[in-house]
Amino acid sequence: MIGVLFLCTGNICRSPMAHGIFNHLVREANLQDRLFADSAGIDSYEVGQPTHSGTVSVLKKHGVIFSKRARLLTEQDGAAFHYFIGMTQDHIRALERVRLIAGNSRAQVALLLDYAPQLGVREVPDPYYTGKFEECYMLVNAGVRGLLAAIRREHGL
Question: pLDDT of 74-106, one tens digit each?
């Protein structure tokens, strides 16, 4: 199984959005037996909290039913995934640390929007502060679709 970990700050907005969209697209492509995803946060202040209602609402509006409880990125995550996908450069630094601690040199670490270069932006803004969940969805959706296409090419899926 090929694992993808999405990371954001608190794991209640952006990373669960990416996680939900990814799972939805994987089910549509009937690849559940080949791919799995999870999401986590780099800060502990939201651990145990449900996915933000703005994220749940925008996902539902686009036909994606998803919700989870926030969790913190752990050292064990460093060995468990093939792709570590962050929303900002701060997230990338955290992902690199856990990957290196685990000795997982084969795992790829990237910004989500590296997979959507046509957008002309590199980081996904946090809708927790702006309330722009629809804008966030558009960015995350494009990045997740690009990521999934890249994974399918790389692994012949």
Answer: 888 888 899 999 999 998 888 887 777 777 777
Q: Which residue ranges of the chain lie beneath pLDDT 70? A: none
For the annotated catalytic residues, the residue numbers are: 8, 14, 126
Instruction: Provide the residue range defining the domain that includes 131.
Output: 2-155
Closest CA to 113 of 148, 150, 86: 86
Q: How many domains does the chain have?
A: 1
Q: What is the CATH number of the domain that holds 117?
A: 3.40.50.2300
36-54 in b/e form (b: 16+ CB < 10 A) is bbbbbbbeeebeeeebbeb
Return the number of other C-beta atoms located less than 10 Å from residue 107's C-beta.
Answer: 21
Strand partners, 41: 8, 72
